[in-house]
Amino acid sequence: MRSSSADESTSGAPLLGDQQDVENGAAATEDPAQPAQRRKRFTCQELFWCPETGYQPGGRSAVLSTYTYAAVHGATDQLLPASFKSLEIDLRLSPVGLGTASSCSRIAHAIACPLWGLAIDCCGRRRMFASTALGWGLASALFFFVWMPWQVMPLMCFTGLFMAAMGPLSQKVLSEEVPAESRGTSFGTMHFFQSLGRIISLQAATSVSGLFILGAEGWRYAFAMCGLVSIVMAICLGLRVPDSAEQKRLQKSSGVKWFSPKELLYVLWNGSFWSMLLVGILNGIPRSALNFCTMWFQYCGITDWWSSFIVSASWIAAMFVAPFVGCLGDYASRLSRDHGRPLVAQISLILRSGLMAILLTCIPLQPSSFWIFLVLSVLIGFLAGWPGVGVNRPILSEIVKPQHRATVFALVSTCEGIGAALLGAPLVGFLSQTVFGYISVDHSHKLVALTDLQRQSNARALSRAMLCMTVGPWIANVLVYCILHKTYRKDRQLQTVFEDAPANAENRIDAAQQDVSCGDNRPQRYKSALS
Questions:
Q1: Of all residues in the chain, what percent are helix, strand and coil, respectively (each to 5)?
Q2: What is the dihedral of CA 479, 419, 359, 448, to 10 degrees?
Q3: How far is it, in rounded angstroms, from Cα 180 to Cα 425?
Q4: Which pLDDT value is given to residue 512?
Q5: Torsion, Cα of 360, 363, 368, 372 (10° steps)
Q6: Per its record, what are the GO molecular function terms (predicted)?
Q7: Is the model's pLDDT at 166 over the cut of 60?
Q8: pLDDT of residue 2
Q9: Distant-in-sequence contacts of 496-502, Cβ < 8 A, 24+ apart
Q10: Which DSSP helix (H) or strand (E) runs through 216?
Q11: pLDDT surpasses 50 at 37
């Protein structure tokens, strides 16, 4: 460390007396660094929502990039539900067809997610950020040229294929860079930005989808613009996001190292992992089924913009509450290490089920119910994301080995995609048409040509179908979390032992080597340390 006189000479300040140097030495030493510290305060990395990482260089940049990636991912994911009504009219897609289109994306997501998880654990995160965002950006931009119903299906498959990387990639980066006691807050902040992207996409796409701009439908421009933003983001992330220090070391020593699937066999004896798989399947069903909400509000007689506003209000509530949900999950975990997080999930699911049942069954299906729809949607939004943000993600980061976090989370996300693809939106479309009497709108007449009685009949059919596919899975999830109360403690403690064993062995070896280097004649201790 340089002396204070050297610092003064470098900065051009006159030399002071010895006594004054002693009194003001610290201030003189810090003076040259003060401008740099002031400049650092105004960077985006010092904002309140960026966590203190302290793990490795470039950690904050990776966390902020994950938040940006999540926002654009949420915007892209919301494009199709926001355009359901326009696609029904312009491309002659029935609710079954719309559900099938959504299902194509979910199936591709379910198939690709484990592969992305394996690639993320073995390859650098920089190339994963860039390649996946570029892929879904190109697929979204190609929606501008869709003119036939069958063309929607392959594009949705390609979109789901690349968007499947979001879950395991964010799980890997945030688990690596954020300490365990703050991960719930970090996942909540990520959910905030993802919801923000969904809100912007929902409002913009729904508002312009029914317009004609330069001879083309407005929803085409919405897809094209979102695709362009994704491509630009992919280029920026590819240039900016650093790989982790461990990944750089592995790439220099042996290149990309793929681990064997046999290394994951220990997960099969993890009861909490199986609970998370079942939770994923059940959680994907309502998430996919609620894609019909905007369409349902439109059939209730509410205009396009206000229909999207109600759904956006729910997303806004979920967006602002997400960081606090993460903090609540962390606080509940500190109060009760074994039961706090599962209990938070159970309370939120019970409250949300009751509010959803009231919304879908007890409110008159007419425009005058707008304010009731809005209030209930906001309350439901406040309870959204509690299991995922405050419970599932932090628990998954604690019950598996660090080098397998992305792969294991991908398996859970795959189960969620299977539930969404097979039992979510497709079953809502099927039940509404074949069981509850939905009247399809074909190309021969527009939605405005339906009578009020037919509109209410369609709204009632959609509400009953969504009720079956939302409240039922949520109540089932409450029961699954009861299993987690029994398994979480044992699985977490076992994983803690696995993580601490290599570090303890390394410390014992270092201590023994230090004894040898100091000339201590204690061979027995050295042998025991190595054993």
A1: 80, 0, 15
A2: -170
A3: 35
A4: 42
A5: -80
A6: transmembrane transporter activity
A7: yes
A8: 40
A9: 496/398, 498/401, 499/401, 499/402
A10: strand 216-217
A11: no
E strand map for 304-374: none
Q: Per residue in 473-488, pLDDT tens?
A: 999 999 999 998 888 8
Spell out the residues 6+ positions from residue 165 whose beta carbon is closer than 8 angstroms to its own: 112, 113, 116, 120, 128, 132
Distance CA 453, CA 488 (A): 52
Q: Give the three-state DSSP class for 301.
A: coil
CA 403 centroid distance within chain: 20
Q: Tokens 């990387």, residue? A: 165
Structural tokens at position 163: 């968007």
Q: Of 59, 78, 15, which Cα lies nearest the Cα of 290?
A: 78
Q: How confident is the model at residue 3 (pLDDT cuts 50, 70, 90)?
A: very low
**How is residue 496 written in tokens?**
């803690």
297, 307 in Cβ contact below 8 A? Answer: yes
- On whether the CB atoms of residues 413 and 168 are closer than 8 A, the answer is yes
CA distance 275 to 263: 20
Task: Report whether 185 contacts 327 (CB < 8 A).
Answer: yes
Cβ(324)–Cβ(464) under 8 Å? no
* Whole-number Å distance between alpha carbons of 102 and 84: 10
Burial 258-267 (b: 16+ CB within 10 A, else e): eeeeeebeeb
Q: How many CB atoms lie within 10 A of CB 161?
A: 22
Separation CA 531–CA 528 (nearest Å): 5
State in words which class domain 57-504 has. mainly alpha
Instruction: Please give the distance of CA 339 from its chain centroid, rounded to a whole number.
Output: 24
Q: How far apart, in whole angstroms, are the C-alpha atoms of residue 527 and residue 531?
A: 6
What is residue 247's predicted lDDT score, i.e. its pLDDT?
65
Share of the chain above pLDDT 70, in %: 77
Cα 348–chain centre separation: 18
Tell me the mean pLDDT in the region 349-354: 95
Closest to 179 measured CA to CA, from 59, 88, 84: 59
Comparison of pLDDT for 57 and 39, the residue scoring more: 57
Q: Does the pTM of the predicted model rise above 0.85?
A: no
Return the top range by mean pLDDT from 94-108, 161-175, 220-234, 282-296.
Answer: 220-234
Q: What is the CA radius of gyration of the chain?
A: 27
Q: E strand or H helix at 173, and its extent?
A: helix 166-177
Other beta carbons within 10 Å of 255: 8
Residue among 530, 406, 510 nearest 114 (CA): 406
Length reported for the chain: 531
Which tokens in the block code for residue 205?
A: 């796409």
Residue-wise pLDDT tens digits, 253-266: 655 556 666 777 77
